[in-house]
Design a protein that fits this description.
Elements: H1 7-32, H2 37-56, H3 60-77, H4 85-107, H5 113-129, E1 156-162, H6 173-180, E2 185-192, E3 210-216, H7 221-226, E4 235-240, H8 243-255, H9 263-270, H10 275-290, H11 298-304, H12 310-332, H13 338-365, H14 368-391, E5 393-395, H15 397-401, H16 403-414, E6 418-423, E7 428-430, H17 431-452, H18 456-461, E8 468-477, E9 480-487, H19 494-503, H20 515-519, H21 543-552, E10 556-562, E11 566-574, E12 579-587, E13 590-595, E14 599-605, H22 607-613, E15 618-621, E16 624-630, H23 631-634, E17 645-652, E18 655-661, E19 663-671, E20 685-690, E21 696-700, H24 702-719, H25 725-728
Parallel strand pairs: 6-8, 13-21, 16-18
Antiparallel strand pairs: 1-3, 1-4, 2-3, 5-7, 8-9, 9-11, 10-11, 12-13, 12-19, 14-17, 15-16, 17-18, 20-21
Helix pairs in contact: 1-2, 1-4, 2-3, 3-4, 3-5, 4-5, 8-9, 8-12, 13-14, 16-17, 17-21
């Protein structure tokens, strides 16, 4: 199918995918609460809206398939079909197939054979769910007035009272009834003579009769009303739709475009009320208002005049509330293409660099007024920068919610009963990070369910609840976002992991490793402890990719495990990949930027301290052992250090370390520029930036440096026979 993907069609695709997400969430809620009527309605509305919107663009394949799913959902909504696990699974499959059809349409490709066969199989299952619809039995008894329930059968109910002067005005009442018969079949007609006077008072030129008519016809209400157009002012006419059409009218109301927010306009648009009936009812309401009486609501007037059923008024009022709520929400939000936001962030970054250059120039000239103006511009640029970055911040809850479906499907495939617990869904981070974290999280979730959580039998033997628990949590910490994937399973088998690593030659047989270092071996390429390969895992592919993807986002991944209690994988990511607040330091002629959120304090070193640091890789910071990295040695900077050196104390993931530098140059707004492939493997560097002078400064990868310092300190511990901190921390920082 080849389509011109204009703006309207692109909006349709975006909204349809959002509706499919709502549909999936509703179905997953129904799996635990099958009597949730609101969830059923939400699923039905999503399918119905997608079908209606698809019809506008001529997407017949989507319309035809969605209509079948919608028909079965309608039976569920009307209580004719009970929800069960199998039916929910069928609807989830239909949801996936609709998404596949949307993808095919968006790509402009032809439907492949697998997709077609899948659609046919799902359609066949839907057809099996459609039994004969139960219709109310038609009776010949006089129809009840409005308010007594739905009208019987599938006939229109026409209540007709001719005026007394209709004959004098040259009209034949019977001719209108005969003409009415041309629109369909008059199934029943009752003549009412209750207005007939006594014989002595009867005028042969006056009409005293009324009629109750049941008409079986496919005509709409406006056409039936048009039959009596020439006698409309000389009669009382009430036309009620068939009971079988009430649901159709409600369906039409739900699928109406959200252009009308008035009750009367909604009822006219769906065909339940004609424009004449609406005008007459509004005139009646206006008369009550003119008499300074409290006017009746329009809905009550329409029901009282037997123009429309109460169910339709309720449906229209619900639609009215939804329209007004949607309009209110839309007034607060606008849809902006992500590329435009990226362009804005880039421009703000260039503005930050230009502002830094202007500030530096003002300082060099020593012009006080220019410095003050430059400071004001810098402050405004900082506010603009913060506002621009907030535009790209989105809650991670939307990503988390997608795993409800993953947990459901994988748990059934594994034959395990697993519950997903989500916390911290409101935590925000950059949209670009959210888009790239989905795949690593999916692998970690599936891995926890397959390897971590035991079967119900094993859990019972260990005194655990039969239902396993998988946790997704997110929170902010030290300028980063932390995402945790945890389970209450059996934990990692330390000895088994170490044995596999020795067997594969990843570590030496006599090598001394901590528990955390052993657990982190599962991130090595090709590493697996599984005895059998399954659809989910066992091939040794995945965990190393997870780590690479996270490190590509300037993040880290760490793992904690307790045997018999469970495992937690903790991912730390930067809040944004574009601009950060930094602390500028100098080493020789080189400048480096430390993310400001990770800086705790700065401490000056004395000559005695410098001599002590030449022998040790740690200092005594007020009684606390602080490992450090001398940046001059780490980056092999030429020349000798200055007589005055400083330690910048940084922290990350609960660990502290010191960075030994020559100069402290103050806070600096940093626009992050990515490094080329040639420098992607350089340890301790996460990016670069441009200073106001035009020089390039490297952005330090603090997590990597902290881990390096901690590893050096741990290695010295082992060499020293695990001597205590008090014995080793002889250097003193003033």
């Amino acid at each position: 199918m080849s389509l011109d993907l204009g703006d309207a069609l692109q909006t349709f695709f975006a909204e349809s995918r959002s509706l499919l997400q709502e549909m999936e969430e509703g179905l997953l809620r129904l799996e635990t609460a099958p009597d949730d009527a609101e969830a059923v309605n939400a699923v039905f509305r999503a399918a119905h809206t997608i079908k209606g919107s698809s019809g506008l663009f001529g997407l017949d394949d989507i319309v035809a398939f969605t209509h079948k799913a919608e028909s079965v959902l309608d039976r569920v909504r009307n209580g004719e079909l009970a929800l069960n696990e199998g039916l929910i699974g069928l609807f989830l499959g239909c949801r996936d197939h609709i998404e596949r059809l949307l993808d095919i349409t968006a790509d402009g490709t032809e439907m492949d054979a697998d997709t077609r066969h899948q659609g046919e199989a799902l359609a066949a299952q839907l057809g099996q769910c459609m039994g004969p619809a139960a219709l109310p039995a038609e009776t010949e008894a006089p129809l009840q007035s409005l308010g007594g329930g739905r009208m019987a059968g599938d006939t229109w109910h026409i209540s007709l009272r001719f005026g007394r002067d209709v004959l004098k005005n040259g009209m034949d009442p019977l001719s209108f009834i005969r003409y009415l018969g041309t629109l369909g079949e008059i199934a029943h007609l009752t003549t009412l003579d209750d207005a007939l006077p006594a014989a002595a008072a009867m005028d042969p030129e006056c009409c005293y009769l009324g009629f109750e008519i049941r008409l079986r016809s496919e005509a709409d209400k406006a056409r039936i009303e048009g039959v009596f157009e020439f006698v409309r002012d000389d009669c009382q006419l009430h036309i009620l739709p068939p009971g079988s059409r009430v649901a159709d009218y409600i369906e039409l109301i739900e699928m109406l475009p959200e252009n009308n927010s008035r009750l009367g306009e909604i009822l006219v648009a769906c065909g339940a009320v004609t424009q004449r009936e609406l005008d007459e009812s509004l005139a009646l309401q206006a008369c009550e208002n003119a008499r300074e009486e409290a006017p009746q609501p329009l809905g009550e007037i329409l029901v009282g005049r037997q123009i429309v059923q109460p169910e339709l008024v309720d449906a229209a009022l619900t639609k009215q509330k939804e329209v007004r709520l949607r309009q209110t929400q839309e007034a607060r939000f606008i849809r902006v293409h992500a590329d435009k936001l990226d362009e804005l962030i880039n421009l703000v970054g260039e503005l930050v660099i230009a502002g830094a250059g202007a500030t530096l120039l003002a300082q060099r000239q020593g012009n006080g007024a220019m410095q003050e103006a430059s400071a004001l511009v810098s402050r405004l640029v900082e506010e603009i920068r913060g506002g621009a970055l907030r535009l790209r911040m989105v809650p991670i809850g939307e990503t988390f919610s997608r795993f409800q479906r993953v947990v459901r499907d994988v748990s059934k495939e594994l034959g395990k009963d697993i519950e997903l617990v989500v916390t911290g869904a409101e935590t925000e981070l950059d949209k670009s990070v959210v888009e790239k974290i989905g795949d690593p999280l999916t692998h970690l979730v599936r891995n926890s369910m397959d390897h971590g959580i035991e079967s119900a039998e094993v859990r019972a033997s260990r005194g655990k609840p039969a239902k396993g628990k998988l946790r997704l949590n997110a929170y902010h910490d030290s300028g980063s976002i932390v995402i945790e994937v945890g389970d209450d399973g059996g934990g990692l088998n330390r000895d088994r992991i170490l044995g596999k690593a020795i067997e594969r030659g990843i570590v030496g047989a006599n090598q001394s490793l901590s528990d955390r270092e052993i657990y982190n071996l599962i991130f090595e390429a090709g590493f697996s402890t599984a005895d059998q390969v399954s659809n989910l895992s066992g091939r040794g592919v995945g965990m190393d990719v997870v780590r690479r993807n996270i490190e590509a986002l300037r993040g880290t991944v760490e793992l904690d495990s307790t045997p018999g209690e469970g495992t937690t994988v903790r991912i730390r990511l930067p809040l944004t990949l574009a601009i950060i607040d930094g602390f500028l330091v100098g080493v020789g002629d080189s400048a480096y930027v430390v993310p400001l959120e990770m800086v705790l304090e700065c401490v000056e070193l004395s000559d005695v301290d410098r001599q002590a640091l030449a022998l040790r890789a740690y200092v005594n910071l007020r009684g606390e052992v602080l490992p450090f990295v001398r940046l001059r040695d780490h980056f092999e900077v030429d020349g000798h250090g200055t007589r005055r050196e400083n330690i910048v104390v940084v922290h990350y993931a609960g660990h502290k370390a010191g960075l030994v530098v020559d100069q402290l140059m103050g806070e600096f707004q940093t626009v992050i520029k990515p490094l080329g492939k040639m420098f992607s493997k350089v340890k301790g560097i996460s990016g670069s930036t441009i200073l106001g002078t035009g020089d390039v400064a490297l952005i330090l990868d603090v997590p990597s440096l902290v881990q390096q310092a901690a590893a050096r300190e741990a290695g010295l511990n082992r060499e020293a026979g695990q001597s205590g901190p008090a014995d080793r921390a002889t250097a003193s920082v003033q």
